[in-house]
Amino acid sequence: MPCNCNRIVMTNMNGIPYFAPNNVSVTAASVNYALGFRDIPAVGYLTVASLPPVPDGTDTTLPVQFTLNNVTRSLVDYAGEAVTLADVAGGTGVILMFHNAEVGLLQLMSVLPTPAAATNSAPGASQGGN
After folding, report:
1. Model confidence pLDDT, tens digit, residues 85-95
2. Handedness of CA 122, 108, 63, 49 (dihedral sign)
3. Is residue 7 part of a domain?
4. What are phi and psi of 78, to 5 degrees?
């Protein structure tokens, strides 16, 4: 009798890839960040840092896309909705994404501000006084 077991996929066994886009292009339909050619697993997490700035006046409601190994994918949120430029506001912090080339998914997991923009509101951070 065949097993109806869930397939287990190990992600990022050698660590989470960390890289910066080398180009940004803006059209009337989207903002696209080029990640170039990378040797990454088909399924796993990606860390993207230091997004190149977009031209002044760019519509922040435009959806964000990433091109990796000549394949362009739209970045989506947990609900499957398009992530917009406003959602990754500032564009200079670290972005954690989940990538699944098998199903064509590129999902936003987290956006962190740059250290200069971070505040001391993190748990355990000094609040002054004493």
Report:
1. 999 866 567 89
2. positive
3. no
4. -60, -30
